[in-house]
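Researcher: Next entry in the queue.
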Amino acid sequence: MLRAQRRHYALLGRHGADAARTSIHSATTITDKWTEQGDWSELRERRLARLSVNPVCPSPAASVLRMVNYPEVVTLAHLLASAHHRQRRPPT
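Model: Structure for this entry, 92 residues:
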């Protein structure tokens, strides 16, 4: 999580607040869809297992899933903010 936070700050520094905000939003939307579809990576599974999940309600809260997904969100946001991907995006 701390590494992801440092990468998030690096994203802000390298691409600016607007590009970072847009790419984080898009990356969050994508990883939320992955989560809804049950596409879990091994790393996310391990992060979730480290947290104390209520056995009565085994489905983690949305805030817990956001925290567990955060490293993937930041990594994907870096890709989306890259010059290569920005050139390939359709105009909005």
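Model: The radius of gyration is 15 Å.
Researcher: Noted, moving on.
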